[in-house]
Design brief:
alpha/beta, seven-stranded mixed beta sheet, 7 strands, globular
Amino acid sequence: MIDPGRAFGTGAHPTTRLTLELLQELEPGSLLDVGCGSGVLAIAAAKLGFAPVVAVDVDEIAVAVTLENARLNDVEIAAHTANALTSELQPVDAVVANIVLDVVELLLPRLDTQRAVTSGYLYGEQPDVDSWWPRDRRELDGWAADLLERA
């Protein structure tokens, strides 16, 4: 149950669906959701057994909506306002980032993790960042998502 309110993300967009598919391939552990929007990915991760789950977004409204949706779905998520390109990011087992490609490419070198599921870009695009290699890719309706591992 997701009410996006004034935040982005209902869970119906192909990038969200693809990210969820790849997330299910990972062993649950700690997780960071960068650009959490309505919290759909963080909530799904918590339902899949990931813990602790931390969600960040630059938009205060998105963080408030994420926390409310987590409450409605009876999951525990820590969410706060942060710019993932400038703020300190904690070490985690996995990261999800359903955001535009240029931000994904700036974000990946900053992450203290071995695995990242990225999306928010078109089928013909793919993150190109040193020391990260693709492990799996999913495509739907012209959109793509990638499971990346640190080399």
